Amino acid sequence: MERSEGQGLFDVYEVFVQKSQGEFHTHVGSVVASSPDHALYMARENFLRREPGVNIWVVPREHVHATPYEETDFFAREMDRKYREVSGYSENGRLWRMFREKALSIEEIAKALEVQELQKRKSRKEK
Prior knowledge:
Strand content: 15-25%
Helix content: 25-40%
CATH topology of the largest domain: Ubiquitin-like (UB roll)
Oligomer: single chain
Strand order of the largest sheet: 2-1-3
Shape: elongated
CATH class of the largest domain: Alpha Beta
Largest sheet: 3 strands, antiparallel
Order of helices and strands: EEHEHH
């Protein structure tokens, strides 16, 4: 908005509301106000008349920094991070089932230990 002599000075403020403690502040809109205090009152009246809230942030629009829409290089991935994506989890389930099928039972482990013990005894007797 233009500022002229004799008129009040008005700025655009971006409004963020926290619905309950522990939640994130969420952007809900903008208000035009002459001061940060006036912007708080305007935000409360416009965005919290019918909804509960525990906290409001108002930020002058000129203090919000954002990337331009044309700058696609900013969001390019420097490295391959496919290991962080969820797509591989179904493969993990299949691999885990295969591992469990090949896993030994307690009886098989006990039998293997008995065989090892018998082999140790035979080798001791031969000496």
